[in-house]
Amino acid sequence: MATQQKQLLLILAREFTSNLSTPSLIANAEGTLVFYNEAAEAVVGRRFSETGEMPLEEWLVPFEPRETDSTPLPAERRPTHIALVERRPAHERYLITSADGVERVIEVSAFPLFAHTDEFVGIVAIFWRV
Amino acid sequence: MRLTIWGCRGSVPTPGPSTVTYGGNTSCVEVALDDEAALILDAGTGIRALGAELAKRGTRRIHLFLTHLHFDHLEGLRFFAPLWDENVTLEIHGPRSPVLSLRDRILRAFSPPLFPLDFRDVPAMVFFHDLPGEPWCANGLTLSSELVLHPGPTVGLRLATSTSTVAYLPDHEPALAGIEGRASEWISAGALAHDADVVLHDSQYFEDEYETRIGWGHSSVAHAVAFSEAVGAKRLVLFHHEPNHSDRDLERLEDRARELTRSLDGAPVLAREGMLLDVG
Q1: pTM for this prediction
Q2: Chain B residues with CB inside 8 Å of A120's CB?
Q3: Global ipTM
């Protein structure tokens, strides 16, 4: 086939999150950020069409995820990392700096997506401004 | 590649005077292979007459690909003559569910109260293969499968030779996840149908009928055209006809498809029982 179709669950997740007013992002099984919705754009301060697909960990760097006392939040405590690596749901409250330079406290919940025969296809993360 | 349509009605068989032109049997398509084996897509009621034909031909090796297990794609299997011939080997490929293998799912249809006989009574040698899986190859033809948008585990199929490509998507509602303005990779079955010479696609409803049946797993004629154009297909064959549509209704649907067409190479046509499609 000339092009590779996204996993059907990711297509459905994109359609679902694109209709949510809750900020949400989707990463595939390889940890590539493949989509975030308009509500998320308002929180992170950057449109997905400008960002495009990129490694999720790399995308997170400019936001400087840190604890509320400003110490850096280790990757292994980030819900997206836990959902991707340990393949289990996770939740955390932490501080970021949005692309517009504004410091924001957010809460993030991430969960893994398993398709047919328990095939891991990626994660969905939803987050809130606190 | 040569395809013969043995059934193209959707949902339930519709025999009667108002459906004689396009037929009332449910989904079944035969793909000619250059050997003594048979390749069949789906086991709707159209497979019963095909089975009688294969018995006449003496075909003893059959590959059957099921897109999904809704009854209109499976119910003919129990009345498929080769299944009741101990000299036949039948390889059945189809989607498993998250909890049951293809074999276990099909066995449910072969047990009381749905059927008087048990699968143990079947004399043919039957082997089951879960989809999606690795592409299946025979005689220069490659058949690939992907999960597509339709309620329950459902695959679409892409058949490719060195000179031609056909996509078979009899039950498909890509509009549920978006078609227009989407990159092909984000469209359900976008890769399966990409640049296909022919797409056999679900076009069960007129646009106004679709509005009250969103999420039922089927497409409007407008969505069938939009999908085919979005993936760069060349020709569209309108498939899985609504059981309430008479031959005359279907001809209006075909007219509507032609009105909507912008970039296909040829005008969309209605699938009909007995139709031969030579591709490439």
Answers
A1: 0.90
A2: none
A3: 0.75
